[in-house]
Amino acid sequence: MAIFDRTIVRLLPVVPRPVVQKLSQRYIAGPELKDAREAVRRMNAEGKAATIDVLGEEISTEEEAAAIVRAYQDVFADIQRCELDSGVSVKLTGLGLKLAYDLCRDNLRTVVEDAGSRGNFVRIDMEDSSTTDDTLRLYRELRAGGHDNVGIVLQAMLRRTQTDIADLADLKPSVRLCKGIYLEPPDLAYQDYEAVRTAYVRSLELLLDAGCYVGIATHDEWLLAQGRRLVAERGLERGEYEFQMLLGVRPELGDELVVEGHRLRIYVPFGRHWYAYSLRRLQENPKLAGYIAADTLGRLVGRRNGA
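RE: above sequence
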């Protein structure tokens, strides 16, 4: 299966744009805010919370970063007006991190303060390892400034993550724990599949033992089982943790979690920059590319057999 996944990834750059759109349309709400709104409404009706992400981290000017800020303000207003159960996730490169640290800090503070005024929450996403120090620094600055409506993402595959958990423990942060999707060198990240799994479980144990609210973000059935075990062993109530998944990825697993009584949050990206996001997401995660290709092929074959 790994060979199939990597083959799909290598072919992506030459796949026609409409085909990429077809492959990714289940995994992106659409180009407009109204598309995200309707996706979140569906999630809420199924007993699931959501996190909305505005696509567009590939910005190159201050004006583009400011447009992302305004887009998030529109999202917060829409969430409040429609009474949706959703927070947001922001990528700091989209707010100008690669342009200037101070620019990004000011833009992020604007987003977080707008969210706070509406009783909403901002999750600062984690990107590749070149941004990790600045991301954690900005998170600490916000918390020091009295902003408690903000959380962070940690990637289990990075060798530094368990040290970062210890360093953040005094804040009892709200953490989205994921495996990590970026291609990193061996000295910075675990490369072996089982090593990443082991690091994930250990990171989850450390976060829960530190009293953190954790979003257990995975589609890995074994890790889902470990997450269930760890929260049960600690006697955690439904409101003291949650599971998180991506829109359209292995939804049957998410449905099982909801039926079992767990809180589940679905990541809902939208925006006109869907093509770049789709290619990057698929290229960075060959297994996801394989899931999508196999699923799409299965649906096409099934449709043909039923014709």
